[in-house]
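Dear colleagues,

As part of the handover before I leave the project, I'm documenting each prediction I ran so the next person doesn't have to rerun anything. This entry is a single chain, and its sequence is reproduced below.
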Amino acid sequence: MEIDGGDRNSGDRPIIMVTNDDGIDAPGLRSLVHVLVSTNLYDVRVCAPDSEKSAVSHSIIWNRPLTAKRVEIDGATAYAVDGTPADCTGLGLSEALFPSLPDLVLSGINVGSNCGYNIVYSGTVAGAREAFLYDVPSASISYDFDWKQKEVNANDFVLSAQACLPIINGILSAVKNKTHPMKCFLNIDLPTDIANHKGYKLTKQGKSMNKMGWRQVEEDAQGPKMLSTMTMETESGVVSSDNDTSVHSKESRLFKREVRDRITEEGTDSHVLKEGYITVTPLGALSQTDVDCQNYYKEWLPKITNQSCSSSL
C-alpha cells in the first residue's frame, strides 16, 4: 500500500503537474494553476494539450513525434503539447521534458462533470489514469457546469480549485508519510453551485450516462461543437466546416450525435453530485466484470469449446 519515492522531488515543496483535456488555455486549468501557485506551497508544472481534446478517452498518438512548446503561465513551468491528455501526462512523467517526477498529477478542472459511464469517454480522467498506471498519485477534477448558462464564470473554477485544496494537501501528506494507496486514483466532481456546496462525500462510480442518438445533418457554416465529455450543442441541424479538415463528396451523408436521454443511478457519484456535494470517487484501471458474469463464462467456455472439438473429430 505504500508509495515508492523513486526520483521524486527532494526539495522543500512538493511538485504538482497539471494537465487537462480542454486545452492549456482553458479557464479550468488556468484557475487551478493560479490557485496552486497562489498558495506558495507547491512547485507547479503544466503539460497539457495545445487545443481541445474532450472525449478522446485514453487514446495516445503513435504515428508521429509530439511537439512541446513552452507557454508563459505565471508561477509555473508550462508546455503545450500537440497530443492527447494521456500523451501529455506520459511525456510529463518521462523525465524527458521535466528533470524529475512530480509528487502529484492533477487533471482538470474540466468544463462539465465526469461521472458514471461517461468516465469511459473522458480525456480528463485519462490524464489522471495515465499517471496511476505509472505509480504516480493523481486525481481528475471536473466542474458540473450548467450548460444553460452558455458562458463560463471563471470565478466558479477558482472556487472549485480552492475547494480541492484540502484533498490535494491530504494526498500530498499521505505521499510524504508513505501511506497513500497505490491501487487507485481519485475522480473529483464539483457541483454547479460550488459557492454553496454541501460538503465532501466519498462515492462510487455508477452507471449514469447520456444516451446518445444520431441524426442526419447538412453542411453549413454554422454548426454543433463539443462542449464537454458527451455533452454537445443539439439545437443546430447543420455541421460547421471551420474545424473539419475531412473532404465530403456529394455522395457523403453527414450525421451528428445528440443526447436522447440522461440516466442516473441513486446513491452513486452522479446522483450525489446533483444533490450539491463534492464527490470523491476512487477509481482503478481494470475493466473487471461482476461475479455472476465470471461464473457464467466459467461454465460456458469449456462447454462450447468441448462441443467444437467433438464436432471436428
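DSSP finds six helices and 14 strands in the chain. Helices lie at 27-39, 85-93, 123-133, 154-176, 269-274, 291-312.

All the best with the project,
I.
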